[in-house]
Amino acid sequence: METSQAAIWKPNSDRITSSRMYSFLREISAKRGVLPDWNSLYQWSIQKPEEFWSDVADSTKVIWQKRGNEVLSGDSMFGARWFPESQLNYAENLLSPIKHSSQPVLISYAEGAERRTWTGQELWNDVARLAAWFKSLYIAPGDRIAGVLVNGPEAVIAMLAATSIGAIWSSCSPDFGVSGILDRFSQIEPKILFITSAYLYNGKRIEPLLGLREISGSLPSLIQTVAVEHLKGSTQRFEGLTLGSILQDHSSAKDSEGYLPLAFEPVSFGAPLYILYSSGTTGKPKCIVHSVGGTLLQHKKELSLHTDLGEGDKLFYFTTCGWMMWNWMVSALSVGASIVTYDGAVVLEANDILWRIVEQENVNVFGTSPKFISSCMKASYIPQYSFSHLKTILSTGSPLPSESYLWVYDRVKPNVQIASISGGTDIISCFMLGNPLLDVHPGEIQSAGLGMAIESWNDKGQRVQGAKAELVCVKPFPSMPIGFWNDPSGEKYKDAYFSFFKDRQVWRQGDWVSIQDYGSVIVYGRSDTTLNPGGVRIGTAEIYRQTESFPEIQDSIVVGVPKGDDVMVSLFIKLTHAVDEEDLKTRLKKRIRAELTPRHVPELIYVVHDIPYTRSGKKVELAVLNAILGLPIGNADALVNPEALKEYMGIIGKA
Predict the structure, then answer these.
(1) Contacts of 407 (CB under 8 A, 6+ apart)
(2) 336 neighbors 367 (Cβ within 8 angstroms)
(3) Angle at 42 between CA 69 and CA 317, to 5 degrees
(4) Within 530-620, where are the H helices?
(5) C-beta separation of 95 from 333 below 8 A
(6) Taking Cα atoms as reference points, which of 410, 450, 409, 399 lies closest to residue 429?
């Protein structure tokens, strides 16, 4: 078992007793029998899933249009159907809690644009106008509406209008490029497409509208395309329909309180809500379909109980519309919280822009990536703000190294909860995440999510504790996907998550983890990219924790290159500045040998100019390995910097 580091943060009694998790614990103890602590609450949640998920729905105030009696039909992973008799509407659950808020519920920042805000009434009315327009085009439940949009208010409005009428929403970031957009949307055949006209990134003007003719010409299902003005004046020469013109329609009469009529189409709990996409780095992206009720219920649990968000709070998550964290962030409206969005580069003004927004908006929960925190560390940046309202910093996309925890407490705020969270597009939520009742240990995720029966299994399918193994979930949960689009038999879906442990109906996530005795989780990286020198599996995150502790190393990526019947650990480092490379390599090998094991020590170390990443901030070890071996890369449009891979092609052997 890896030795846990001492707790770096402990919630005080006021923080614990004022949390929604604590209130839920007391509420359930009174209703179901005494549950004295977190562990007993968690065990009840996985042993009595029907009671648990029903109680979560009640406690978090899910709005039902019809509440059936049955909670779970079937208890197998494949056959499980949650709340099969019930009906609800996702948009209603997000808009109703903030409808009468006179304070901004949606706050927008963007590079090259002014701060914008929407009150609850303003958001409601814009959604109502757009929903009425959809209905005028006879858009029906189950139709797909897609967006090539930056992370801003228009994406939220379009999604809410689409889901209010029972349509399915799917979005991606405009920086995917034409081929990346078509790889995704051509599979789902949308009827309406929203596209950002122009935006700024690091001072450069980018105009997605220039690719509109090619995009729309390759999507014969489209009946209408709508340009979204992100920068002022960017749609002046556009001859088609704009979102601004639709939202100026005031034909409907408002009620006495100033609200436009907005009807919410009732759909089943298991009806499709979102289509998300796998990264696509190994082929065409898979279209993952998520349900209305499963997404809503899981998000409300995570946001309200694990993240301790509620009415009057503000969530700011730095994300894009092509990442599941955008969907997760928007669901914060359902618990009465406000959301803050930002689109643009984060290198402006020495990394200050995100921290400045946190301070100016009195953000309570700030979400970012390990890469962003690391970049602040490497730049020796110290935020000069009090962050008086900030209570939690969330991090996801990859494991958060221990050093990053220490930096936050030393340089940002000593009394803040760091909540590393981990799940994915596959489940549009988390398997493990923060917990306001528990201590924070550097490099560890605090706990499993309530209702998520996670275990770690070795290659023989045996449960292990405190040892590195495969992350699995052994019981069904509401946010499991409905399936993949255009996979009527479900074979591709089953193969993706249930084929590894044959004849065992358990979800294999593909993460290499260790579950500690007290419930925290250490993530060592993706299990399909673990290194295997001499037959011993090594998580890539273990090596990254060492490389990122060197101030001379800005970033790194490690792969196992085949060598006969074995692999040679090959490490690629990006430097912060010019150094004596041979001396650095010697010191790096010495550190890895001392802190890890001799098997971890890279046989080869190369200095490179860049490290390739997906658009959601994940390193792509498999793509690097394929480039080294001269194999096809797959969908390079899934990468934010695909040109970086050229440097790796044939690099071993050139030295």
Answers:
(1) 373, 376, 377
(2) no
(3) 90
(4) 540-547, 581-595
(5) yes
(6) 450
Ranges in the chain annotated CATH 3.40.50.12780: 87-515
The C-alpha torsion from 493 through 151 and 523 to 17, rounded to 10°, is: -110
Tokens matching residue 366: 């700030």
Task: Return phi, psi of residue 5, to 5°.
Answer: -80, 155
Alpha-carbon distances, residue 362 vs 102, 349, 545 (angstroms): 17, 20, 32
Q: Are 314 and 337 in contact (CB under 8 A)?
A: yes
Integer Cα distance of 207 and 174 in angstroms: 9
Q: In whole angstroms, what is the distance from residue 507 CA to residue 524 CA?
A: 18
Tens of pLDDT, residue by residue over 17-57, are 999 999 999 999 999 998 999 999 999 999 999 999 999 99
Cβ atoms of 259 and 243 closer than 8 Å: no
Tokens of 7: 């707790």
Whole-model pTM: value is 0.90
> What's the count of helices (H) and strands (E) in the chain, helices before strands?
19, 33
Condensed to tens digits (0 to 9), the pLDDT of residues 582-609 reads 999 999 999 988 888 788 899 999 999 9
Closest CA to 511 of 540, 474, 535, 532: 540
The first and second tokens of residue 423, run together, are 């799940």
Report pLDDT digits (tens) over 363-393. Answer: 999 999 988 998 888 888 889 999 999 999 9
Q: Which residue has the tokens 């041979």?
A: 582
Q: What does 64-112 look like in DSSP terms, one character per residue? A: EEE--S--EE--STTT-EESTT-EE-HHHHHHGGGTT--SEEEEEEETT
How many other C-beta atoms are found inside a 10 Å radius of the C-beta of residue 460?
7
- What superfamily would CATH give domain 87-515? ANL, N-terminal domain (3.40.50.12780)
Cβ-proximal residues to 116 (8 Å cutoff; 6+ apart), any chain? 107, 108, 153
Residue with tokens 């060598």: 563
Cα separation, 53 vs 51, in Å, equals 6
- Check residue 339 and report its DSSP letter: E
- How is residue 11 written in tokens? 């919630």
Tally the C-alpha atoms within 13 A of residue 123's C-alpha that lie toward its C-beta: 34
Cα 537 from Cα 527, distance rounded (Å): 9
Closest CA to 279 of 431, 397, 178: 397
DSSP state of 302: I
Which residues is 205 bridged to in the sheet? 200
Which has more confidence, 154 or 629? Answer: 154
Question: 530-648: which CATH architecture?
Answer: 2-Layer Sandwich (3.30)
Query: Which amino acid makes up residue 635?
Result: N
d(CA 83, CA 474): 20
Q: Give the strand pairing for 287-291 and 267-268.
A: unpaired
| Whole-number Å distance between alpha carbons of 336 and 645 | 44
Q: How far is CA 568 from CA 211, 553, 562, 625, 652, in A?
A: 43, 21, 6, 12, 11
Q: Which residues contact 235 (CB under 8 A, 6 or more apart)?
A: 197, 209, 227, 229, 242, 244
Delimit the CATH 3.30.300.30 region(s) of the chain: 530-648
Six token digits for residue 326: 């955008």
